[in-house]
Amino acid sequence: MIIDDVLDEALRLYKPSQEEERYLMDLANTIIHQAKECSINYNGILKITLEGSLAKKTWIRGREEVDIFIHHDSKILREEMEKQIIEIGFKILKELDGRPRLMYADHPYVEGRIRNVVVNIVACYDVTPPNWLSATDRTPYHTKYIIEKMKPEVRDHVRLMKAFMAACRVYGAEIKVRGFSGYLAELLLLNYGDFNNTIRAISKWKPPIVIDIERHYDSVDELFKLFPNQPLIVVDPVDKYRNVASAVSEKRLCELILASKLFCESPSIKFFKPKTPAVKISKFRRKMLRRRFVGIVFRISKWKPPDVLWGELRKSEEAVKKTLERLG
Q1: Residue 292 has pLDDT above 70, yes or no
Q2: What's the total number of domains in the chain?
Q3: Mind spelling out the 3-state secondary structure of 30-81?
Q4: DSSP labels, 243-265
Q5: How many Å apart are CA 63 and CA 84, to the nearest integer?
Q6: In 3D, which of 200, 197, 268 has the Cα closest to residue 2?
Q7: Do 318 and 325 meet the contact criterion of CB atoms below 8 Å apart?
Q8: Which helix (H) or strand (E) holds 112?
């Protein structure tokens, strides 16, 4: 199959229609209006903005999210900011018939669904680079950077890359996946220009890989000292001391390189369609018994935010691994 035909078909699957875009922007504006109403009686709130892939027009169908950021004065204590975002986030979602729940990243935020769309209400400080007070302070600058630097025609190429990564199960920087964030995918496209160039470049990657779009550093040796033992280094254009790819595990990196090689050799729409392997439990048990396999099942007694839960599971996995290695 000709590669252009494959990409056209993939774009039909994942590029939102104008009607879908209007629907999401309408929802975002409604949430921002409600956020302003709910924030009136709180101190230190300076502005409320739409961020993320919706603001940058790089989201893909099936992964719609509305990211609303509430900017706080830098004089507000972190504890107060966290308390405010929880209260405001729950108010916003309840007022709009959403189902809020508390989530955690660098600090708490509120997630919920409104009209079947994931909504995130996030706090940040209104600061200028490089005076970051929290991890989310960079996000508005990420949005601004992509909007200013990315040509409109490249947005669809970003969508193709995100869809490709999602189908390969390497999309997402959360602890469960340890893969490529949306912002990282956008930076790769800015660096290489279009989907074809990007996928060909990735297929030839040999770790460690270094990408410094804004040329913050004169030599790769500086970067290797700053970010030691990292297979992929992508310098954040808005923060020279941050590696955007720090969450990417070596396993996920190798999986993307292999998938890119296979796609370049034989382009097919199947690379854009996630496939769930059908595994019969009885067959799996028989195979494992023959291998004298021992499995550990962790029972979850109550709901926890995914990053918290997966962080605990990763630590438990590492502890078991070290114990087994020590005991031989």
Answers
A1: no
A2: 3
A3: HHHHHHHHHHCCCCCEEEEEEEHHHHHCCCCCCCCEEEEEEEECCCCCHHHH
A4: ETTTT--HHHHHHHHHHHHHHHH
A5: 28
A6: 268
A7: no
A8: strand 108-114
CATH code assigned at 43: 3.30.460.10
Letter string b/e over residues 33-50, b meaning 16 or more CB atoms within 10 A of that residue's CB: ebbeebbeebebbeebbb
Tell me the pLDDT tens digit for each residue of 58-113.
999 999 999 999 999 999 999 999 999 999 999 999 999 999 999 987 889 999 99
Element (H, E) at 113: strand 108-114
Same domain for 259 and 287, yes or no, is: no
Q: What are phi and psi of 211, to 5 degrees?
A: -130, 120
What is the spatial distance between Cα 313 and Cα 317, in angstroms, rounded to a whole number? 6
Calpha distance 34→64 (Å, rounded)? 20
Instruction: Identify the CA nearest to 52 among candidates 168, 138, 170, 114.
Output: 138
Indicate whether 21 and 122 sit together in one domain. yes
Answer whether residue 115 is part of any domain.
yes
CB 195 within 8 A of CB 205: no
Locate the DSSP E strands across 172-282: 209-211, 232-236, 239-243
